Amino acid sequence: MAGNFWKSSHFEQWILDKGDLLRERGEDLKVYSEEEYQKLMIFFTNFIQEMGQCKERELGTQCNENTRDRPIQRMQAIATACVYFRRFYARRSFKDIDPFLLSMTCTNLASKVEEMGHLTHTKLTATFQRAMKKWALFDPQQMALYHQIKHHHISETEFCLVELLDCSLIVYHPYRPLLQFRNDMKNASVQNAEHLYQDAWRVCNDSLKSDVALLYPPHMVAIAAIMVAALMRGGYEKDKELKNWLAELNVDYEKILEIQQMLFSMYSVWRTFDEQTQLKGLLEKIPRPNQINQTAHNVHIQ
């Protein structure tokens, strides 16, 4: 992505303080424990990622070869949707907009912002329904309610989302810094740099299930992902080239370690998250608007 992160609205408005984030989340933390909230966010990140993959299949026959060769852009669109989702609920409660409606809206908006193709309402609804089938969460009556979501609901929710984001729609992700770090590691003769890059890419994907995208710059997330990937591969203490390369980076390693700890904490919660037995109860506790078809126009954003 072109532009200077340090002069962007992402840096100026959307690198949040952890204490402020927890205070803003207070309304929902009256209903959920912090671990339960994290599990719910893990689910919705997975749900948005599944919607993104369904969208790719919907657009597959329309994509040209040049588009198919852009994995960074494709993942970036999904990641942008996840960040929009997290930013909204960093400021508002689940009771303000139904999270399934917001997940559809974030997916659609991110696809447009990242120039990855526009979905008609019919195709957007189809991707939503395919993603829902993966979990089989709802009884027919509840599913029928979600089938009532109309184009104007998405449009009005998008209006509220863009308003809350203060039109700050450009999101910087760790994928591009990670690509540059891969090239730097290869030039520094770091062993298995390509495999490390691929593992770190997956860690960056997983990082969307935590709060790190709300709290830290993307290049720091990329460095932490490399270190986590190295630890998962057996540690980097014996990899002299990698240690030397990391030592030469001009970065605040206290923050890198904070990111690492958050990622390992997320993995720990994720491992204990049995969707079959826990997810339905978490979803039933969501403080919902009076009606699912309450238009986003009626949601008071301030």
UniProtKB/TrEMBL annotation:
Residue span, Cyclin-like domain: 46-173, 183-265
Keywords, sorted A to Z: Cyclin
InterPro entries (alphabetical): Cyclin-like_dom, Cyclin-like_sf, Cyclin/Ssn8, Cyclin_C_2, Cyclin_N
SMART domains: CYCLIN
Keyword Ribosomal protein among UniProt keywords: no
Family membership: Belongs to the cyclin family. Cyclin C subfamily.
UniProt protein name: Cyclin-like domain-containing protein
Species: Heterodera trifolii
Phylogenetic placement of the source organism: Eukaryota, Metazoa, Ecdysozoa, Nematoda, Chromadorea
